[in-house]
Amino acid sequence: MRARFIGRAASLAFLLLLSVTVSLAGPRFASARLQEEADATPSAEDQPSRERLVTLVAWYAPDESGDFLTIGPLDTNQFLVAGPNNQDDRALTGRADFEDPDNDGLPRITLGESVFDAYPVYEDDPASVFRWLYFNDEPGERPGTLVMQIEATAGPYEGYIGTATFVSRSAESGGVLVIVLKPAE
User: What is the pLDDT of residues 18-57, one digit of tens each?
Assistant: First the structure.
C-alpha cells in the first residue's frame, strides 16, 4: 500500500514537473519554429524560382454603394471565427468589382498593387466565370461559395494564375476571400 502511494506520488510529481517544463518552454519553441518558418518563406519578390504556390487571405464586405466589395485584412477570435481586422490601418486593401469595364465586364480583384482578372472556364461561355456552391444547392441560399479562375495581370504576382474563392456568410455581411496562385506554365 505504501509502495503504491509513493509510486503514485512520484508519477504525479513527474507529470507536474513535465507539464510545467512544457508550458514554460512551449511558447519559446513555438515562437522559434514560427520565426524559422517566416525566415525560410521568401516573399513573392524574393523568390528565386516561381514554382511556389501563393495563398492570400482577406476579409470582404459589400461597399456602401453596393457596386463592389471592399477587401481588407482578416482577423479571427479565440474560437477561430473570422471577421474584419479594423486595427491594422497599414494592411493591404482593395476591391472586387464583378462587372469591371477594364476586364470586358468580367470580375476584377485589386489588392494593393496586384490586379487579378477573372476569366471564363469555357471561352465561349462568359457565365462559366462564376462557379457557385450554395447551401442545400438552393441558389442564393447562404452560406455560399463562389470560385473563379483568375490571372494576375499586374503587381508582384503578374503572370500567376489560380483561383479566387469567396466564402459568403450572408449577402449583407461579407465573408472570407482566399486567393491561391501558381506560376503560369
Answer: 333 334 344 433 333 334 444 444 555 554 444 589 999 9
Stretch (H or E) spanning 118: strand 114-118
CA-wise closest residue to 114 among 88, 138, 141, 96: 96
Residue 177: closest CA among 89, 93, 64: 93
A 10 A CB-CB count for 105 gives 12
What residues does each domain of the chain span?
1-43, 54-183
Close Cβ partners of 72 (under 8 Å, ≥ 6 residues apart) = 58, 59, 60, 84, 85, 86, 91, 92, 93, 94
Own/partner pairs for 130-137, CB < 8 Å, 24+ apart?
none
The torsion defined by the Cα of 41, 174, 126 and 160, in degrees rounded to 10, comes to -10
| Maximal CA-CA distance, the chain | 84
Give kind and range of the element (H or E) at residue 21.
helix 2-40
Strand partners, 114: 111
